[in-house]
Write a structure and sequence with these properties.
The protein is an alpha/beta fold. It contains four helices and six strands, in the order H-E-H-H-H-E-E-E-E-E.
Length: about 220
């Protein structure tokens, strides 16, 4: 009887230990489920996107600021239009879809993965300190790419995590790669990020609490 009781306790402790193991996740895991949709802009080349932008911007200026339109601008617009027509790009359709796709992308950026709520997780990313105290950091944004939010575009809110570190850490560089382990909360909020060239208000969907932070180490 004692033998069986010992085994039950042993398996119970083993299960508890496994339950406390952090779940390794990636940035893609943070994205919630979004109904599939067709994005016609995804198939365009950079040149085609540029020509659409040029033509659309000048067409808008012709409506809003007709006195500011120059011959050079009209010529540039016509060249962009001709190139798009030559490549069989439906310009009117693209402009009709623009606002629709922008709204769908906006909604997709806000969707979180509720299955990860309140779970202990482990992941890697880049630290972007919110405040420095003698070179030490206790609160920072975890972002998926180096330079995000600073000299690169701000990621979707479900791709930014507000991190509260258990212990202050020394930031070796403005975008130090780190591994973090902590409890993930779904907490949509805004934070002010102070940069050399000014201030940005950053929207984020997640918070990581009781966090342990370590320099990034690749795992295979």
């Amino acid at each position: 009887m004692k033998k069986y009781l010992f085994l039950i306790l042993l398996f119970g402790f083993a299960s508890l230990a496994r339950a406390e193991e952090p779940l390794p996740i990636t940035w893609q895991d943070l994205q919630g489920h979004v109904a599939p949709y067709v994005d016609p802009f995804a198939d365009l080349t950079n040149e085609q996107l540029y020509n659409l932008s040029v033509y659309g911007r000048i067409e808008q200026m012709k409506e809003w600021y007709p006195t500011e339109i120059t011959e050079e601008m009209l010529e540039e617009s016509e060249k962009a239009k001709a190139k798009l027509i030559e490549e069989e790009i439906d310009i009117d359709y693209m402009f009709e879809q623009r606002e629709i796709i922008i709204e769908k992308r906006r909604k997709a950026a806000l969707v979180t993965n509720d299955l990860l709520a309140d779970k202990k997780i482990r992941m890697a990313g880049y630290m972007l300190a919110l405040e420095f105290d003698n070179g030490l950091v206790t609160e920072f944004l975890l972002v998926p790419t180096i330079g995000a939010c600073s000299h690169k575009p701000v990621p979707a809110s479900n791709q930014i995590i507000f991190v509260k570190a258990d212990t202050a850490i020394t930031a070796g560089s403005p975008f130090m790669p780190v591994n973090v382990t902590g409890t993930l909360r779904i907490t949509p909020q805004m934070k002010d990020l102070y940069l050399v060239d000014g201030q940005k208000e950053i929207q984020m969907s997640y918070t990581l609490e009781d966090t342990q932070v370590q320099p990034f180490v690749a795992t295979h």
